[in-house]
UniProtKB/TrEMBL annotation:
Superkingdom of the source species: Bacteria
Similarity comment text for this entry: Belongs to the class-I pyridine nucleotide-disulfide oxidoreductase family.
Name assigned to this protein: Pyridine nucleotide-disulfide oxidoreductase
Intrachain S-S bonds: C50-C55
Domain FAD/NAD(P)-binding: 13-328
Boundaries of every Pyridine nucleotide-disulphide oxidoreductase dimerisation domain copy: 367-472
Binding residues for FAD: K59, G122, T152, G153, S154, D319
Length: 492
């Protein structure tokens, strides 16, 4: 399907954006706000992976699962949960949130802000040139006066193991667009996608086995993976850590798949989902025409300009620069880079120093992430190990959530844990991690504290409303103060 636009071969734009997902849309919006003309090229659905196969559908599917789990944690409400989830209703809810995979609304948004939308496969064709090939084979060449921004995202990375093609494994796309509940589902990978998919499909009625080479969600504090593993196990998931898949067999395309594990055992499942990382969607976008390696992650500076390309015109935003494969992080980069593109186009000086308007400083210091498992796991900034490795002198403050009455009112016998990582020399937060029901709502306050480098002396004056889960802040800060007064009892 092509979109109407009044353009001609070689028509110049100020900015060309490859990819119309949330990241691409944000850089389009900021460039248009700067008064620049913009063309955006999309080869799949306008709205990208996040809108149709990742963040939006997964959270739409997970919410009913978590809502029932929350109800079961409250006396009086638990007795009202008398049956299983209505899977047809859950899938219908998902379908509404992904607009039945119809992107016309998002396409209208792109055009409403004054950008020209080109549907087709966009490839760089030398400096500041992009060739768009439509589904019917017709081609059009666009040129950019100031910038080309790559926001093509990433794809699932499947391991090279015998039988993987025969097994026809699920990826995150199958895990979020399927409307059939497999009786037995094997999930390979213990990162964020793996634990969310395990939470989701176990809640929908699958018997789930989760296989991980090492501890779950390894980029978070160790206790996060331990508590999530405990929660999954209590929900009925068979969590197996320290194993790898060495081969797959599925001789009957409609039959079960057999996984051979490196410990010599075998596991049979009706479907297998691989959540084993991502690879950049840059293999066929013409990187070689500007001296870059096709299929590579793209290194960028603080304004998201691609390293190794002369002329300050090529930007890489979101997953493709591999800084943090998170939609909100990519949108932050896009807003910052879009403003930098506007400043460069107008000949204005850049504010690209730390925390400047044109610097993606948060990439290194204050990236928040949430996994909507049960319990939820949320973190921002540095873990204790990362802070130590970076040479910071730190104090660690750990606390169980049952110290806060608001948490106990939220869920009977609330189980969760919180950690602050404090820079002792400046007395500011370097990182925070929360694990427990509903803790995702605590993360933005922690992000503000980390990004704003709020002194703990000042942070103690931020009054937590009673009785809420956020009371944990009061107890964490009080524990830090006690540690300062009695350092022999503190963790460093």
């Amino acid at each position: 399907m092509s979109e109407p636009h009044e353009t001609h071969e070689g028509t110049p734009y100020d900015v060309i954006v490859l990819g119309a997902g949330p990241v691409g849309q944000n850089v389009v919006d900021r460039a248009r706000a700067a008064g620049l003309s913009v063309a955006v090229v999309e080869r799949e659905l306008v709205g990208g992976e996040c809108s149709y196969w990742a963040c939006v559908p997964s959270k739409a599917l997970l919410r009913p699962v978590i809502a029932v789990a929350d109800a079961r944690r409250v006396e009086g409400a638990r007795q009202a949960v008398t049956g299983r989830l209505d899977t047809d209703g859950v899938f219908a809810r998902r379908n509404r949130y992904v607009t039945d995979w119809d992107d016309s609304g998002q396409a209208l948004f792109v055009k409403s802000i004054g950008a020209d939308l080109f549907r087709g496969h966009g490839r760089l064709d030398g400096p500041r040139r992009v060739t768009v090939t439509r589904d019917d084979g017709a081609q059009q060449t666009l040129t950019a006066r100031h910038a080309v921004a790559i926001a093509t995202g990433s794809r699932p990375a499947l391991p090279d193991i015998p039988g993987i093609e025969e097994a026809r494994p699920w990826t995150n796309r199958h895990g979020t667009d399927s409307s059939t509940v497999p009786a037995r589902l094997a999930i390979v990978g213990g990162g964020g996608v793996g634990i969310e998919m395990a939470t989701l499909w176990q809640g929908l009625g699958s018997h789930v086995t989760l296989l991980a080479r090492r501890r779950l969600i390894p980029r978070m504090e160790p206790f996060a993976g331990e508590l999530v593993s405990q929660g999954l196990t209590e929900a009925g998931v068979n969590v197996r850590i320290g194993v790898q898949v060495s081969a797959l067999r599925r001789p009957d395309p409609e039959g079960p798949v057999t996984l051979t594990l490196d410990d010599g055992s075998e596991l049979e499942a009706d479907e297998v989902l691989f959540a084993t990382g991502r690879t950049p969607a840059t293999g066929d976008i013409g990187l070689d025409t500007v001296g870059l390696t096709p299929g590579s992650w793209l290194d960028v500076d603080t304004t998201c300009l691609v390293d190794g390309v002369e002329g300050a015109w090529l930007y890489a935003l979101g997953d493709v620069n591999h800084r943090a494969l998170l939609t909100h992080e990519g949108k932050y980069q896009a807003r910052t880079a879009g403003d930098a593109i506007g400043a460069r186009a107008a000949g204005r000086p850049l504010d690209d120093g730390p925390w400047g308007d044109h610097a993606t400083t948060a990439d290194q210091h204050a990236v928040p992430q949430v996994f909507f498992s049960d319990p939820e796991a949320a973190a921002v900034g540095l873990s204790a190990q990362q802070a130590a490795d970076a040479g910071h002198r730190v104090r660690i403050v750990d606390l169980d959530f049952n110290a806060a009455q608001g948490a106990n009112l939220y869920a009977d016998g609330y189980q969760g844990h919180a950690r602050l990582v404090v820079d002792l020399d400046r007395e500011v937060l370097l990182g925070a991690t929360f694990v427990g029901p509903g803790v995702s709502e605590l993360l933005h306050s922690a992000t503000i504290a980390v990004a704003g480098e709020v002194p703990l002396k000042r942070l103690r004056h931020a009054i937590a409303p009673f009785p809420t889960v956020s009371e944990i802040w009061l107890f964490l800060l009080a524990a830090y103060q006690r540690d300062q007064e009695n350092p022999q009892n503190a963790s460093t």
